[in-house]
Amino acid sequence: MLDYKKTEDMERMKAEAVKRLKWLKIPELDEAFAKGIVMVSDGTNGDVKLRNLTIYEKCMVTNFEKIQHAIVYHTILTETKFGKMLSMLFVGKYEDEWSMDKEYFEYSCAQVYVENLDYPDCSEIGTIGIKCTDKGIIRTF
Fold first, then answer.
1. 85 falls in which pLDDT band (50, 70, 90)?
2. Residue 29 near residue 39, CB atoms below 8 Å
3. Terminal Cα-to-Cα distance of the chain (whole angstroms)
4. How far apart are the C-alpha atoms of 24 and 31, rounded to whole Å?
5. Distance CA 88, CA 53 (A)
6. How far is CA 81 from CA 42, 119, 138, in A?
């Protein structure tokens, strides 16, 4: 288990996040993360577009990172019949799980934390389907 408070462990987690962003093949995400910016693929209006996180979304990301000792490198906002969801793609503190995350990507899936904005009690860590486009990432399931 990596120590979230140790600089060298944080740097390893950031390096893993950069590697995962390259798998997504969306250069704008790489550039933003290099500047310390986490972006959101906003698919709430039927068409996905990249944008910066709102202050409220940043607070949710920061809170998750502190509690889970993780680094969020991208988020996906979607409207579902279960409410509006903010899916956070992250690098966790357990380095031995990172290879599994790579396998998920190979099957167009990602291990994420999903914050249900309408029903917070329904928020959880799980697996979602993803599809990368030049405009952002779409959650498929």
1. very high
2. yes
3. 30
4. 13
5. 12
6. 16, 11, 16
| Count of other CB atoms within 10 angstroms of residue 125 | 14
Q: Are 99 and 89 in contact (CB under 8 A)?
A: no
Helix or strand or coil: residue 70?
coil
Q: What is the largest CA-CA distance in the chain?
A: 42
pTM here is 0.94
Q: How many residues are given for the chain?
A: 141
Distance separating alpha carbons of residues 98 and 137, to the nearest angstrom:
20
Picking from 39, 65, 52, 57, the residue whose alpha carbon sits closest to that of residue 137 is 39
Q: At what angle do helices 27-34 and 7-24 cross, to 10 degrees?
A: 160
49 alpha carbon, distance to own chain's centre: 15
Q: Which of 110, 141, 138, 140 is nearest to 42 (CA)?
A: 138
Between residues 105 and 87, which one has the greater pLDDT?
87
pLDDT of 1 strictly over 80: no
Place of tokens 């509006």: 84
Cβ pair 40, 112 in contact under 8 A: no
Written as six digits, the tokens of 44 are 């709430």
